[in-house]
Amino acid sequence: MNAAVGLRTRVQEFLREQRNLGYRLISCGRELLNFASFVEDSKHLGAVTVELTSQWAREAHGGNVSPETSARRLVNLRPFLRWLQQFEAATEVPDDSIFGSLPGRKTPHIYRADEVLALMQEAGKLGPSDGLRAATYATLFGLISATGLRIGEALGLADIDVDLVAGVLTVRGAKFGKSRLVPVHPSVIAPLATYRATRMKQVPDAAQSLFFVGSRGAHLGKPLGDRQVHRIFTQLRTQLGWIDRGSHGQPRIHDLRHSFAVKRLTLWHEQDVDLNQRMLALSTYMGHVRISHTYWYLTGVPELMALAGARFECFACAGEFDHE
Question: What is 113-240's CATH number, 1.10.10.10, 1.10.720.60, 3.40.1190.10, 1.10.443.10?
C-alpha cells in the first residue's frame, strides 16, 4: 500500500464516492472499515494480497465461521479491491475458488389463494372478541398479500400515508432509503377503511400515529413490533398445518410478497403481454433497487419456470413448422 495514502483513507474515499452515487453501503461500509483495521493491526506492508483478504474473511467472529460467511465477506470486499487497483495496480482480487461462490436465493413458498384466505380467517379469530387484535392481523396480512409490501413497510405506514380516497399508499424511507407511491386495487380499500374505523373507536389518537398499532394492554395504540407480528404468524401457521413448498423450511410472512410478484407475472404470462415492457413497472412498484431482483422470479420460482418453458416450447415448435 502506498505509504502516502493509507488503506483506511482509500476505503473512506471509496465509500464517499459510492454514497454520492446513491448507494448507502451501511453493512458493506462496516466490513470495509473492519478490513482496514485488520490490515493496520497486522502491520501489513505493500499491496493487498489474496492471502491477506482470505485471512481476514476467515477470522470474522473469532474465526468460528462457515465457508459461506467467509465467501460473503469477500463479496463485500471485491468491488472495493477492483476500485483500489486504479491506485495500486498490484492489488489482488480474490475469486470464488477460495471459499466457493454463494448459494443462490432459496425458493419461496408461493401461497395459493385459499391459503391466504385461511390465514386471514384464522387471524380474524384472535381474541379477545371485543378487541382490535383480530382486525389488525387479518388486515395486515391481507394488505401484504395484495400489495407485495415488505413487513417493515406495512408496519411503518402512518395513518396519513393511507389515502383511501385516491387509493394510494405512501411508503416512506423503505429499504435502501427509497420512498414510493403504491396504488392499491379497489378491493383493498374497503377492508382498510373498515380496519381504520375499528381502530379509531378503540384508539382515537391513532390518527396521529401509525396505521397498524398494538391492541392490548400497555401496547394499545403503540407501534406494532416486527417480532410480535412474526410470533403471531408462527402461531397461525402452526394452527393451519401448512407444508412448506419452498426451501426455507417453513412458509414465511415475506413469502406473501414473493407470492404477489409471482401471481402478477403469471397473469401477464396468461395475457401474453411483453414481460420486458412490464418488468420495470413491477420493479418500481415493489421497491426493488435493481431490476435484476425482479427478473429473478422468472428463473428462481418453479411456477414461472414452467410457464416460461411452455412458452419457449410453443416458440420452438412454431419455428420448426415455419421451416418445413
Answer: 1.10.443.10
Residue pLDDT, tens place only, 169-212: 999 976 656 789 999 999 999 999 999 999 999 887 755 689 99
Cite the active site residues: 150, 175, 254, 257, 288, 297
Global pTM reads: 0.72
Classify residue 130 as left (phi > 0), alpha (psi -120 to 50) or beta: alpha
CA nearest to 304, candidates 278, 270, 254, 274: 270
CB burial of 256-295 (b: ≥16 within 10 Å; e: otherwise) equals bbbbbbbbbbbebbeeeeebeeebeebbebbbbeeeeebb
Q: Where are the domains of the chain?
A: 7-84, 113-240, 254-322
- Of all residues in the chain, the percent with pLDDT exceeding 90 is 58
CB 304, CB 270: distance < 8 Å? no
